[in-house]
Amino acid sequence: MWQLGTLILIIYQSIVLPYSLAFGGSGNTVIDTVTNVIFGLDIVIQFNTPVAGLDEGTEYVTDRWEIARIYCRGWLFFDVLACIPFDSLLLWINQYDAPGSGNNLNVLGLLKAMRIPRLLRIIRVLRVLKILKINPEIRRWLQYSRHANLLRLVRLVASFLIINHYVACIWYGAIESDELKSQDENKSTVHLYISSFYTSLLMIMGQNITLYTDPEYVFSVAAMLFGSVLQAVVFGNVAMLIANYYENQSSHQKKMEWLFASMSRMKLPLDLQNRINDYYQAMWERHGTLDGAVTAFIPELSRNLAYEVELFLRMDMINRAPIFQSCSAKVVQELVMELELQVFMPGDYVVVRGEVGNDMYFVQNGICEVTKEVNPQTTQSFSPSVQAVPPDVVINEVVLKTLGQGDYFGEIALLMNCKRTANVRAQVFSELCALTRDVFENISLRYLEDRNIIEKFIMDKYDPSMLQAAMKQSQELSMRTLGVGPRPSILKRSTTPALDTDAIEILRRIEERIHKLEQRIEKDGEERRTRAFAREMVDSEDVFRLQSTPPQPPLPPEIEGYLKKLKRKTSNFTGGWNKRWFFVDPKRREFGYAKNKSPTAPRSSIYLNDITAVVQFDQTHFQVESRTRTFFLCGESKASTSCWVKSLEEYRKKLVEYEKDVAKRAASATHVAHGEHRARAPNAASGIPGHGYVMEAWVDDFD
């Protein structure tokens, strides 16, 4: 506050001092005395005010001796020189001289000159502006708001007037000749100042004035040269500031003119043109955008800043949506970042009854209506992105429910591929956030607990019979998409403009499913191992040798995930549980755990061949026994526990069958070998070399 008051006083002095030197008298005033006292106190305050270090990035200096040293090397000389009242000292010395002496005349002539050091106070503006603290919000508003151009314009005009004020004071106080002054005898000081101000303005603008002496001509030439540069700067900046002030309006006007011309060339219906104009007008009034990008700067931000902006914009919607209440903050954060903002005009259909749903919608702003046809005659098959209710078409619909900010609908589409059961249309200009099924699947697969919470929340909301019907529809649609069963003709579906878009979307999904099936088949083919069990009988010098390549044991499926490990078994499974990352490594044939998701360096493991039993106690607790040790484990959910137990038990059973089969084949091979050796012994005795070769193969069907 002190610095702000000092700044105002300096600005006042910068205007009054030149006027006082050029037009004022020699008397000392109360204002001058108060000003000298204030500037004297300011010198004392500067010795006790922390200052910034000389090096950039250093902290404030608080040591008094260091503050005094910095102040004495900087602004102290100018502050003291501007604060000393030289004119008052000169009058005090002159009072001892006799009246009417020549010294009195000299003193009166020097009195104005003694006030010149006070002009050094103007330099203090630089120091005050450097240390003046302005609120960051106010500073941003002054620099970057739309009204900042007007403030710059005012500052530019004020600077021009102050410069002209100084030129007028110099002209009258030091340059103007006695001939010109004689024309304004017996005039008031205000009249003399206005006349000088007008004369200086003419000189700066390059106009002709009456001159008499050489100093007047020289000063006029300098003022004209300086004025030409000043005019170029001032008027150039004025034009630029005015153009910047109206830049947004000009861009909007050009955009609407281009839009009008484009729609005219396309010969669009008037109703459609009006709706397009309403859309652009609404986006301009609400978000100030011309291209529909509401938050175009968010992709330029860092990840954390983008998270904060998205969460702030949708915080009200998140707080009102109960589906997010039980989810972890990380899941909510990732889902919010993947939401797609969609805008709907009044009367636009968001979803249409009978179409296959793939998105879930959250109402961020606006109001939507859930409607249903009273007696629908035909099934609607148009796309909601292009469909709206024309004003001359009456549709018999009844409003079932009204949705506001924070409400959501279509959540069943995240879980299954079923049809919409009702229409949802925008009552007013509405902004909705869409969550697609693909995004939900990609995120929820990494957070199984939150996925189970969301699924349970959605399932509890619907009637069991409705869920069964939706699941049946989902299965039928999935089979049709994969090409199983009758497939509806795409070309006969609709004749609306959304035909191409819908067909492309269906083909894209079919290609994705085919690609996934090809990957699965390739993976299964790699997992299926065909091994050969061969033996040769070589008869050389009555020596029988059996060569065989034993089959390899079945490869287990690769499984990994978090499990809780109990330190020791207790009666009620109480004790210290440690959450570890468990895995089944098919290559190493190991079952173990690591501290994190890095099974390449396991903390502890056992060979799968050593597993003797897998016992499940309840829905989540089970144990894995081996010849060396036993794991007491707890799964994250019922489904997760069942998956682990089933996979390990199936592999153990197949391994037992494999060992029995190996033993059986070895016995059979030995029996065959001995029989053939006995059968071929006479040939060897007769000198006929053995040439028998037997190959047996088996295929492991472990899946």
Word description of this protein:
Residues 323-443 form the Cyclic nucleotide-binding domain. GO terms for molecular function: voltage-gated potassium channel activity. The chain has 703 residues and is of the alpha+beta class. It has a seven-stranded antiparallel sheet, with helices on one face. It has 22 helices and 20 strands. It has four domains: 2-181 and 231-244, no CATH class; 248-290; 294-462, Jelly Rolls, CATH 2.60.120.10; 559-665, Pleckstrin-homology domain (PH domain)/Phosphotyrosine-binding domain (PTB) (PH-domain like), CATH 2.30.29.30.
Briefly say what this structure is.
This protein has 703 residues and is an alpha+beta fold. The chain has 22 helices and 20 strands. Helix 11 crosses helix 12.
Features:
alpha+beta; Jelly Rolls; seven-stranded antiparallel beta sheet; 22 helices; 20 strands; disordered C terminus
Label the structural class: alpha+beta
The beta-strand count equals 20
If helices are DSSP runs of H or I spanning 4 or more residues, what is the number of helices? 22
Percent range of helical residues: 40-55%
Arithmetic mean pLDDT: 73
**For the report, how would you describe the main beta sheet?**
7 strands, antiparallel
Count of separate structural domains: 4
**Strand content bin:** 15-25%
Distance N terminus to C terminus?
Answer: 81 Å
Q: Please mark out the parts with pLDDT under 50 across 5 or more consecutive residues, or reply none.
A: 101-109, 378-386, 484-500, 527-550, 676-703
The global form is elongated
- Rounded radius of gyration (Å): 46 Å
How are the strands of the biggest sheet laid out side by side? 16-15-14-13-19-18-17
